[in-house]
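My current task is to audit a protein record that another person submitted. Alongside the sequence sits a line of tokens, each denoting a local backbone shape. Where you disagree with what is written, explain briefly why. This is what I was given:
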Amino acid sequence: MLRKLKPGIARKLARTCAAAISCACLLTAVPAEGRILADPGESAETGSADSSDTSNGEETPGSSNPGESSGSGQSSESGKPSDSSKPSDSSKPSSSGQSSESSKPSESSKPSESSKPSESSKPSESSKPTESSKPSESSKPSESSKPSESSQPSETSKPSETSEPTESTQPSEPVSTENAIIIVDSANVRNNPGTVNTTVIGVVRNGKKVTAGEVVTLSGDPSGSNVWCKIEFTDENGEKKTGYVVNDFLAKDMDVTGDEAFENEISGFPDDYKPYLRSLHSAHPNWHFRPMLIERTFEETVARESRLGVSLIYSTCNDSWKSMEEGAYDWQTGEFIVYDGKMWVNAAKPVVSYYLDPRNMLGEQSVFQFLDLSYDPQYQTIDSVQGLLNGTFMQSDLIPNMDATAEISYAEAFMLAADTSGANPVFLAAKVLQEVSIDGSNSTSGNYFSDHYNRQYTDLYNYYNIGASSDADPVAKGLAFARDGSSNPDINNRLLLPWTTRIRSIVGGSVFIANAYINVGQNTTYLMKFNVNPSDSSQFGNHQYMTNIQGSFYEAKKMYNAYSKAGILDMNMVFSIPVYKELPESPSLLPREAGNPNDYLRELSIDGYLLTPQFDAMNCQEYSLVVSASCTSVNIHAVAASDKASVTGDGVIELGDGVNTIAVMVTAENGSSRVYTLNIARNTEAYDNYFHTSLVNEENFFSGIDPESTVADVKALFEMNEGFSLVYYNMNGMDKDDTTKVNTGDLIQILDAEGKTVYIGSLFIRGDANCDGKISSADLTLIAHFILGDGSLSEAGKHAADANKDGKVSAADLTLISRHILQEGQIVQ
């Protein structure tokens, strides 16, 4: 039995060992959001082990009431800003862009908690319905994620006569200068106050400066947003407009608090942070905000956090939110490259900018990612811990203390854990509830049988699910860590491993968490995701707890909900908020959901023919083909690289006389387009309309060329008629120098006086079937494969393979070419 340590000694011991444990405990790789790993290279995208809580590790997008937000030209209206439009606790986004206007104000303007957050569905706190979308905790979009009829104003929900404006507290017209800013992610502007019988005329986004004027108070508006302000603003097209927004979506110059002590407290923040902080202070006077000065510029930090594999997003989100940089996306196949699990891909740089920018994260919920997670007895008491535990399986149960001489409450256990580890006890308790749910789980039962491993786990506990990473049975994996720990006995002793009692798991696990992150300076969930202020500068952007770009926001919402449910939101709390050098003038915005921009082809071919040059989707958009005069149509096959793009111009195409120019167009999901041009020459008119030549013309394939001829030699054999000119290309469509030798497949292109292509012909040297300009054994091999049906030849190559001029490619040609190579015979050109 481990000797019981006095709390002060235990804490001193834990901190003395911090450096050693922080190195050894960095056995965790970079889990997506919230799972604590024990083995190198593991990542925890999966949810809490055997937890009934839907807010698991792998957030799947979806919102219970997708909102009317900026993507659709509409946003949310509610009486009080909240984090509702922040990404929801799910990573599989809802497809709905409709909104619900409900009865209680929220911070509707912040982005939804969906991992496919869209501009058109940015949810609000589910507990505070508004006109914006309400994030759900569900892991998959369902019918319930679509706005119900009740979410729209109905006949029964229209305001009564008393919902007409009843009070005007400001001048009737906006003043002429900008005197307010928008402090939510996006807000609808309506032609009149209220949400009934009004029209959305525009959207204003976070940080937008506007002119605020008349304030109108309604009663009974179904959105719950009864106070509206008339604003004048300039939209994205430079047009000036006037309309109404929810008053609480604005921070006005006149709203500067008269609280001198608070103004002194936030004096170290840039001015553009202060409107958000004042709004938070107004709602929660006991919250305190401290600036954390970051040595790097914001641009440097974005670049660092945008490296491949560092900031990921769920693959079902809109493609405009995913990175299409090299290594993140394959433009030729239309596939995003997965970097973790099966569904996590790299986030686009603007999305990284958005989640890094603290000004986007200063809502009532999202600010919790800046909550200081270090233990401070001044602010964190046993009463605050007990408040969080009320209503859970840990509310009133007693557990044996460390030496089993007495029983203590769970609240006392977390206070001991805080004193030992240096971690915020409320955070530790919230972390357990996130991991194992309010009812507990097999990780905390002390008696679990794994069907997968066919093994019983008795008297083993893992309250934080440390080591319970992605696996067929993550509970068993976490309990195996509780039993075995690491390979270092000293570390296991410091972590109180094995965790054979509840108290050892709670206290030992807290040391693991604190020394791995909190006690090395990453003492907020923001810093756990974005290590932008490390004590060791070489760790800038490294040693990060989660790869999910939205992960720190998810954790913030969970923590906010835990504090809110426990009724301890108004306790004293400290938030450490980064201040970057050279921040953009306005808050970084999420990209609009424009869709996938890939307008390339994956395949382009014509039945029975080979294109010149060989198809290269990325580098060539113009191709040539010479067909016989008897060919009246071709069948073009074209496949877009992205399955979200469409193709026109393919299929069976009728050919006219001369050069037929055919445009195959790819239109991307976002509306961009790319044209691949096919110049198909069906030369039915006598070529001597354009030129005369001594070469033999076999339906526009020219022979009679000596294998040692140069381009200049061939050009000299063409006498151009007046007004026409000849251009000479190789089979890849590139100009050839006059001094280079001729190859089978070289093209002559005839232009008229205006530069229009009127004729295309191809050259060939008999025996040079592989188009390298020589007659060799390589040609024999290629022709043999063609005869056997397991190889192909270009059109010019087929003519070249017919060495005996009988109109067929056969064994007789192989014999003649072989004799030519052995100098036992001669191919007549």
Residues 551-566 form the longest helix (16 residues). The radius of gyration is 35 Å. The mean pLDDT is 81. The first strand starts at residue 63 and ends at 65.
